[in-house]
Amino acid sequence: MMVKEELRKLGLHFVLVDLGEVEVMEDLTSEQWEILRTNLALIGLELIDDKRSILIQRIKNVVIEMVHHADEMPNTNFSNYLSSKLHHDYTYMANLFSEVQGTTIEQFIISHKIERIKELIIYDELNITEIAYKMNYSSVAHLSTQFKKMTGLSPSHFKQLKVKRRRPLEEL
Fold this sequence. Notes:
With about 170 residues, the protein is mostly helical. The chain folds into two domains: about 1-45, no CATH class; about 50-170, Homeodomain-like (Arc Repressor Mutant, subunit A, Orthogonal Bundle). It has helices at about 1-10, 30-40, 50-70, 80-85, 90-100, 105-125, 130-135, 140-150, 155-160; strands spanning about 15-20, 20-25. Strands 1-2 form a two-stranded antiparallel sheet. The model has no long low-confidence stretch (mean pLDDT about 90).
């Protein structure tokens, strides 16, 4: 809503305002770019106009949407899912992401899945088997192995500790 308001202030007509993405009907002048960049920065948002940075942000958005906001993880290979969602070759996206972020898309996904699993454990509404199914793990053992590798704790030990060891998404 705040982005829409800033666009309106500049007299711009938007076609799309979505998580991390804005499409306007007009071509922006350099002055409009700077005003928009400054106004967005004042509200804690960053204007990204580099195509590579935009694609990386879109990759992150798809991962976050899939892991944290979808009812169920897709039952397809994530590389195929990402390619179809973003209409880019997965190898290109994976290489770009690794080069710029210093980590792989796979590690980024695993980090987010582990944070989501921590959240689900803390909520205490699902057991580990149900969490493994919801997060599309092949087995509880696979989830437990990955969880322990990332956190140093088994899921059951994490649950017993009742320590909220979740990190903000921005830190992942």
